[in-house]
Amino acid sequence: MPISEMQLTKRQLLGGVAAATATLAVFSTAQAAAEIPQADGDVDMAAVLKPGELPEMAIGKADAPVKIVEYMSMTCPHCAHFHATTFDEIKKKYVDTGKAQFIIREFPFDPRAAAAFMLARCNPSKPEELSTAEQYFPMVSMLFKQQPTWAAAEDGRAALLQMSKLAGFTEDSFTKCLTNQKLLDEVNATRERGSKEFGVNSTPTFLINGKRYSGDMTVDTMSALIDSLL
Question: d(Cα 64, Cα 162) in Å, to the nearest integer?
Answer without folding.
Answer: 37
